[in-house]
Amino acid sequence: MKPLPLTVRLAAGLAVTAVEQARKLPQQLAGLPVTVVSEALRVSMRVQQQVTELAIKGDEVLSVLRPVEQEPEWATFDEDEPETPPVQAEDPWAEEEQALAAEPPAVLPNYDELSLAQLRARLRTLSAEDLEQLLAHERTHAARPEFTGMLTRRIANLKSS
């Protein structure tokens, strides 16, 4: 028997291969998105590598044409800074002595230890004069904005009613 022509044999082989691939297709479809994404990432990484390689080669060529700065103009170093004479410090104990000498307000002897919520709870029992005393003490000592604000509002409410 005489062999079939090459084109017929190729066509038959191609048809069998197509049928085999068609049978594998359902299994391959499940992994297709992963394959596509990984291939896209691989290509993207390769492009980034090539761009970086080109930039490095460009830097090498251009470095011959342009001299390297010894110190960039934006760089500052400690030794470049002008020396300033040290500032004469005030007595470090003066502030502490002042705080120790200050008397707590007679209205609330433990005022300095109170939290904002604790002070708020006691405000209704105090007169406007007591609140003025606390406000003056707060302003001369800690001057905490939330405390001074709350005391000021309470005094204004008492005077308006």
SSE diagram, text form:
Elements: H1 6-65, H2 94-101, H3 116-122, H4 128-140, H5 145-160
Task: Write out key terms for the chains shown.
single chain, 161 residues, mainly alpha, 2 domains
Give the gist of this structure.
By secondary structure, the chain is an all-alpha fold. It has helices spanning 6-65, 94-101, 116-122, 128-140, 145-160.
Radius of gyration: 42 Å
Beta-strand percentage range: under 5%
- End-to-end separation: 123 Å
- How many strand segments? 0
Give a quick account of the main beta sheet: strands, pairing sense, barrel closure. none
The overall number of domains is: 2
Low-confidence stretches: none
Shape: elongated
Number of helices: 5
- Output the helix-strand order: HHHHH
Characterize the quaternary organization of these chains: single chain
- Would you tell me the structural class of the helices and strands? mainly alpha
Helix coverage percent = 55-70%
Give a verbal description of the structure:
Helix 4 runs antiparallel to helix 5. The model has no long low-confidence stretch (mean pLDDT 83). Helices cover 65% and strands 0% of the residues. The longest helix has 60 residues, at 6-65. By secondary structure, it is mostly helical.
